Amino acid sequence: MSGFDDRKKGQEGKFAHDQEMEFKVMVRRNKLLGGWAAELLGKTGSDAEAYAKEVIISDMEEKGDEDVFRKVRGDLDAANVEMSDHRIRRQMEELLAVARGQIAAGE
C-alpha cells in the first residue's frame, strides 16, 4: 500500500505544482497585456505599472479570460483607441506564449 500512497502523493504534488505554474503564467500574461494596453493608452512609468496591476486584478472576477478582455476592451474604448476585438485576443494569445517562456526560463 505504501507504493500506491507514494504514487498518489507524487501525482497530487505534480498537480499542485502545475496549477501554481499556470497561475504564475496567467499573472505574467496579464501583466504583459497591461503593459501593452498602457502604452496604447499613453501611460508611462508608475501609471503604466498601476494599470498593469489593474489588469492582473481584473482576472479575479471570473474564471477564464473574458474579465481581462472586458477590462482592456473597455479601457481602450473609453480612451477612443481603435483596436479590434480580434487584435486584443490575438495579443492575449501571443503574450500567453511569451509568459510561458519567461516562467519556464525562471524569469
Tell me the layout of helices and strands.
Layout: H1 2-40, H2 45-58, H3 66-78, H4 85-104
Explain this structure.
By secondary structure, the chain is an all-alpha fold. Helices cover 80% and strands 0% of the residues. It is built from four helices and no strands. Helix 1 (2-40) packs across helix 4 (85-104). The protein starts with a helix and ends with a helix.
How would you summarize what this structure contains?
Helices cover 80% and strands 0% of the residues. The protein is mainly alpha-helical.
Task: Jot down its keywords.
single chain, mainly alpha, 107 residues, 0% strand, elongated
The total count of strands amounts to 0
Proportion of strand residues: under 5%
Query: Considering DSSP H and I runs of 4 or more, what fraction of the residues is helical?
Result: over 70%
The total count of helices amounts to 4
Q: Order of SSEs, N→C?
A: HHHH
Alpha-carbon distance between the two ends: 40 Å
Give start-end ranges of low-pLDDT stretches.
none
* Biggest sheet architecture: none
Q: Whole-number average pLDDT?
A: 91
The class by helix and strand makeup works out as: mainly alpha
**Overall spatial form:** elongated
- Rg over CA atoms, rounded to whole Å, is 17 Å
